[in-house]
Amino acid sequence: MDPSTQKAEVKRIFNRVAGVYDLLNHVLSLGEDLRWRRFVARCLRPGPTGRVLDVATGTGDLALAMAATGHHPQVVGLDLVPAMLARARDKAARRRARLPLVTGDGTRLPFADHSFDAVTIAFGIRNIPDRPAALAEMARVLVPGGHLYVLEFASPQRPWVRRAYHLYLGRLLPQIGGWISGDKASYQYLAETIMDFPSPTKFRRMMRQAGLVQPRSYALTRGIAWLHIAHREPRLA
Ligand SMILES: C[S@@+](CC[C@H](N)C(=O)[O-])C[C@H]1O[C@@H](n2cnc3c(N)ncnc32)[C@H](O)[C@@H]1O
To answer: Can you tell me which atom of ligand 1 is nearest the CA of 14?
Structure first.
């Protein structure tokens, strides 16, 4: 699939599943997804201005978890799909949280260079076909010394865990996703993006190629999810 067809497909999928996205996330990850996002929120160092951009914010769970931390960062959420942002907007209103939301593309961020102290993206980068462009854009909008946090799935390294996980992804996930959302094909596609996502080592290399420094990765839940952190080079005095 060429990148523009893939982007249109991703848009179609998230438009269709927006209404059941949160429920399915919690069911399919047995509630672990909430813990993973809370972990990112706890690791976040919002920096001196407290400006944080959450790319591919979806229904806003990570953005809202970060906004609720003691640092009180000013989080902005960006996503390609208005139907996902509508959910985030309702959720923020219910929690009386301030969460500015922007419709936009992660590969062409509508912000000036050095606009944010931190940028986050949770389970979004694997849905963006041009990952080098997205990483370069996220690096561009970071202040020198700013931090990038990427939460994403990966296939576990241990062979038996990997086999069991791929069986779950290939068979069970599309089945359950299909029952709840009525769209088995979308969940089949999402499962494939997880199985195809590069290993943490390869992903760290991509971060370096985008100009980010000191990348490191933390495994969550036996390496099913990973938090990758890297920095933009600090300005030399
Ligand atoms: C699996 S959801 C993750 C949502 C949220 N971050 C979370 O943790 O639940 C992936 C999100 O990426 C968004 N997305 C996909 N391609 C994008 C792009 N090129 N630019 C911005 N957002 C994009 C989708 O619309 C969707 O909301």
So the answer is: 25
pTM: 0.94
Residue 136's pLDDT band, with cuts at 50, 70 and 90, is: very high
What domains, with CATH codes, occur in the chain?
Answer: 3-155+197-232 (3.40.50.150)
Q: Which atom of ligand 1 is nearest to the CA of 60?
A: 5
Which residues does ligand 1 sit against, CB inside 6 Å? 10, 14, 56-58, 61-62, 79-81, 84, 105-107, 122-124, 127-128
| Nearest residue (CA) to ligand 1, atom 26 | 58
CA distance 164 to 116: 40
